[in-house]
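Title: Comparing notes on inverse folding

I've been comparing how different people in this forum approach sequence design from structure. To keep things fair, I'm posting one structure and asking everyone to reply with a full sequence. Here's the target:
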């Protein structure tokens, strides 16, 4: 959940003080990890689901403030725009019953939230990019009233020296657009997976999450449309990257270090290395200094929250104050249904766990540049993508999923103690989706043709299928 701050305007002194405290906390984290002080051995999973508020015409409805007040659930919080909200799940240890518990909690939260929305003549929808969202919706008038968002917008534009945000995406159609602020980011909603891991092996888990990002995204794409154009199968990827476009830091090449992106490379032993990279490479955007002990990592965590790697490291604390590290897998879109998203999560967790413990040399098998190219190929083409796995061997992603990655994920879930019924249910959805070629993006594009480009009819049909609860490969 986005961390709120106390003010929106900052002086040079604020930046200097924040940088000093950030350096102190980064050093403290490195020393704590080296001393074995991040010693939680558990694997724990959680999620964040970003959703849309719609009116009955299927258009965005800027009503998250009264909606959240009526729902009164601390795990459902605002997002950047007034027509988005975020549903969070309580983390659970990865063991038998974990997938069932996560899905039941999300289903319960969704049902309660949807009932509140209906009471306000509103609907909730989960979809990566809403086909009916228009450029006129992307205005500061629809920004959530939050110091964090106001300050982020101000600092991004300051770093861009006032230049508007420019969007250029080529797919089946082409889109060029300009926006005077960061509100285009509000058109992208995701289903984010959190995995808490033991710090000594966190590097292996992080590298596995990077490597699997491409096939995971390819089988899950659900954002093919923006402003009436048919673009990438997961248009959310280039849109997010371009809507907060800042790069070329620390004398590096323009394409090397960006605020949103796939990152700079694999890590060695620990994801703690990435926090040192944060402090070294990324200018501070939100210099909100706090009177907190270095061991709380308040400045380190706030700074990390303004760097949007598609696979992001996190530092957190449990209820007793014990520190831990987590990996946030951010590549997945919202939707199409609960079972689709929970199946994506199971596939991801099983695959990451198996690869992290396989002893495989992932950087050698799949060099970072290849993993990055795979990722953008998956975002462009979905299940029609051809990926390298391993490097130098090109394979249709559907064959890779069915012949190799699904069995590996199964072995990882079995190693975690997940029950056979849970594994069969979740991976059966991924297998059927890969075999049929029917993703959310594929369904949307097919349906758009059948309704002669009527995006409101498309959204109405999408929501009807979503309410059925059936996985997308079964949608009519």
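Reply #1:
Here's my take.
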């Amino acid at each position: 959940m986005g961390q709120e701050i106390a003010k929106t305007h900052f002086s040079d002194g604020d930046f200097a003080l924040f940088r000093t405290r950030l350096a102190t906390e980064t050093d403290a984290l490195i020393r704590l990890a080296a001393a074995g002080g991040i010693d939680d051995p558990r694997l724990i999973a959680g999620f964040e689901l970003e959703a849309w508020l719609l009116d009955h015409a299927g258009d965005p409805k800027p009503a998250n403030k009264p909606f959240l007040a009526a729902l009164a659930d601390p795990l459902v919080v605002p997002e950047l725009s007034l027509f988005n909200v975020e549903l969070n799940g309580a983390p659970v240890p990865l063991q038998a019953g974990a997938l069932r518990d996560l899905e039941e909690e999300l289903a319960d939260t969704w049902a309660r939230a949807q009932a509140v929305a209906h009471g306000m003549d509103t609907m909730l929808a989960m979809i990566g990019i809403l086909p009916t969202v228009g450029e006129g919706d992307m205005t500061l008038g629809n920004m959530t009233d939050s110091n964090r968002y106001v300050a982020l917008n101000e600092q991004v534009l300051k770093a861009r020296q006032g230049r508007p945000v420019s969007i250029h995406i080529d797919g089946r159609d082409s889109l060029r657009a300009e926006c005077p602020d960061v509100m285009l980011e509000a058109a992208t909603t995701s289903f984010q997976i959190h995995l808490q891991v033991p710090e000594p092996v966190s590097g292996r888990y992080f590298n596995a999450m990077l490597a699997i990002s491409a096939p995971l995204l390819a089988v899950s794409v659900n954002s093919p449309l923006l402003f009436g154009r048919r673009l990438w199968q997961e248009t959310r990827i280039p849109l997010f990257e371009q809507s907060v476009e800042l790069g070329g830091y620390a004398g590096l090449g323009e394409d090397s270090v960006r605020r949103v992106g796939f990152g700079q490379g694999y890590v060695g032993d620990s994801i703690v290395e990435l926090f040192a990279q944060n402090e070294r490479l990324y200018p501070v955007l939100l210099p909100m200094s706090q009177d907190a002990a270095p061991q709380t990592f308040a400045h380190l965590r706030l700074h990390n929250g303004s760097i949007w790697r598609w696979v992001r490291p996190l530092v957190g604390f449990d209820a007793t104050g014990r520190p831990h590290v987590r990996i946030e897998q951010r590549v997945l879109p919202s939707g199409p249904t609960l079972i689709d998203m929970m199946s994506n999560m199971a596939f991801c967790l099983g695959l990451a766990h198996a690869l992290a413990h396989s002893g495989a040399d992932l950087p050698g098998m799949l060099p970072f540049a290849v993993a990055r190219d795979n990722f953008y190929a998956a975002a462009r083409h979905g299940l029609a993508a051809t990926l390298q796995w391993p490097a130098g061997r090109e394979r249709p992603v559907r064959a890779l999923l069915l012949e190799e990655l699904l069995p590996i994920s199964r072995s990882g879930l079995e190693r975690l103690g997940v029950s056979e019924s849970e594994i069969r249910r979740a991976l059966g959805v991924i297998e059927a989706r890969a075999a049929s070629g029917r993703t959310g993006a594929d369904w949307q594009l097919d349906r758009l043709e059948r309704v002669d480009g009527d995006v409101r009819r498309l959204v109405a049909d999408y929501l009807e299928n979503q309410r059925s609860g059936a996985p997308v490969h079964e949608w009519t």
